[in-house]
Design goal:
This protein is an alpha/beta fold. About 40% of the residues lie in helices and about 20% in strands.
Length: about 300
């Protein structure tokens, strides 16, 4: 068999690797922890370890020995902007490309075709690519400055509301407060806040509170506002590239109401837009880009 190819999606919550042969057949899949470079320092091994471990697990899934050589590997990493701040990843490939996670999500969501992808996971971003290869990124400012419509932003804003209510002596959110404390297995909101500041409560763990939070009407409004912002950014991106295709991808779109809110918002602002779920997951998009690195045209991926 010719040397295989691999695509890796390194996110803020997890890392997924896919291995494929030269014909687009998926051979194996592996997962590991977060790989993002958000806030990483010089001593961080998070990116290196996550890429290595996800690929190693995928090799075992594919029946390949660890250390197998690859024709090409493409890894999309949340927060990557052309520089690795921590330990450099070492990938066993003839060609290895590291890039932001938005292009790999776009390649997977639209199977390499032009259009707009709206990503709503732990973070959020809208990424557009036209038929000439030109691109535009909207949002994606990170958990401190933006990421509206992301799981972290919704969870954070829900906790802000609960903490303000506690300060104001407002007991109307008692049930929601108890749900938050139960979720984090802590006896008070003060402990939740301290744990986050101390680094004991990771961003991805805080973001995972969102599916619980949006069951409550008071927090659903926060999610709706985020969905509306993502729809508005998608409308702007569509106008910029003069295309009609939009794919929605990321864990938050598993929530039917959130998905519909974004979809309807885009259609309201851009009548005739073609809005739907992603065709492939981001790791598959990275795999498609790995084929492209060596000039291979693989129109479909298959098991």
């Amino acid at each position: 068999m010719s040397a295989p190819f691999a695509g890796i999606d390194g996110g803020q919550s997890s890392t997924i690797a896919l291995i494929g042969d030269e014909n687009g057949r998926i051979l194996g899949r592996g997962t590991a922890g977060p790989a993002d470079e958000v806030g990483a320092g010089a001593d961080s091994t998070r990116l290196r370890d996550a890429l290595r471990d996800a690929l190693s697990h995928a090799c075992r899934s594919a029946g390949l020995p660890d250390g197998s050589s690859f024709a090409a590997i493409v890894a999309g990493v949340s927060g990557y902007e052309g520089r690795v701040y921590g330990a450099l990843p070492q990938m066993p490939a003839q060609r290895f490309m590291l890039m932001h996670d938005a292009p790999v999500a776009h390649a997977g969501a639209l199977a390499g075709e032009p259009g707009v992808v709206v990503i709503a996971g732990t973070g959020s971003v809208v990424y557009a690519r036209d038929e000439n290869g030109g691109s535009q990124t909207l949002g994606g400012w990170g958990y401190l400055f933006g990421d509206e419509g992301s799981a972290f932003r919704i969870a954070r804003d829900a906790l802000v509301l609960l903490m303000a209510a506690q300060d104001d002596g407002d007991s109307s959110l008692r049930e929601e407060t108890q749900a938050a404390c139960d979720f984090f297995a802590m006896d008070s909101l003060h402990r939740v806040a301290r744990a986050f500041y101390a680094g004991e409560l990771a961003r991805e763990r805080l973001a995972s509170f969102t599916p619980v939070a949006i069951r409550f009407a008071r927090f659903r409004a926060i999610a709706d506002a985020g969905a509306d912002r993502l729809a508005a950014l998608a409308h702007r991106a569509l106008a910029a590239i003069k295309d009609r295709r939009v794919a929605l991808t990321g864990g938050l779109f598993a929530d039917a109401d959130f998905y519909e809110r974004v979809r309807r918002g885009i259609l309201s602002a851009t009548p005739g837009a073609q809005v739907g779920h992603a065709k492939y997951e981001p790791a598959a998009g990275a795999l498609l880009l790995a084929y492209r690195e060596l000039g291979l045209h693989v129109p479909e991926l298959r098991q």
